[in-house]
Amino acid sequence: METVKLICIGCPMGCDLSVDIDNGVPVSVTGNTCPIGKKYAEEEVTAPKRTVTSTALSEDGVPVPVKTAGTVPKSAIFAVVGDIKAARPTLPVKIGDVIVKDAAGCGVSVVATKDVSG
Ligand code: SF4
User: Fold this and answer.
1) Torsions phi, psi of 95, nearest 5?
2) Fewest Cβ atoms closer than 10 Å to its Cβ: which of 23, 50, 82, 114?
3) Secondary structure, 3-state, the chain
4) In the structure, which protein residues have their CB atom closer than 6 angstroms to any atom of ligand 1?
5) Is the pLDDT of residue 80 over 80?
């Protein structure tokens, strides 16, 4: 049995989590104040995911702040950032516009987080 200590990133409370793992399988989570912490801990020790925030450059070279519309596997972050860097959105861009569809084949889009007119 292995125990992993984590800090929950589900909200600003930052609960200290402890996950007992048996043969790669999380068997108990303690320290969480709500179910989000349990889900986060179980996912973090088996298949960690993150929301990616970055900046794409429009075809005119204007920075467009973006983020993934959902979480992507941690192992795919560099590929997602590569797709963002390769994108060249045409201005104007509205908040929520899709900048990259299916980033790195993860099934998650990258969207603008701000209106940018140039
Ligand atoms: S366990 Fe719940 S209350 Fe605690 S940090 Fe995570 S989301 Fe917030």
Assistant:
1) -55, 130
2) 23
3) CEEEEEECCCCCCCCEEEEEEECCEEEEEECCCCHHHHHHHHHHHHCCEECCEEEEECCCCCEEEEEECCCEEHHHHHHHHHHHHHCCCCCCECCCCEEECCHHHCCCCEEECCCECC
4) 8, 10-11, 13-15, 32-34, 36-37
5) yes
pTM of the prediction? 0.81
Mutation test residue for ligand 1: of 11, 19, 39, 43, the one with most atoms within 8 Å of CB: 11
pLDDT in tens, 29-43: 999 999 999 999 999
The confidence band for 118, taking pLDDT boundaries of 50, 70 and 90, is: confident
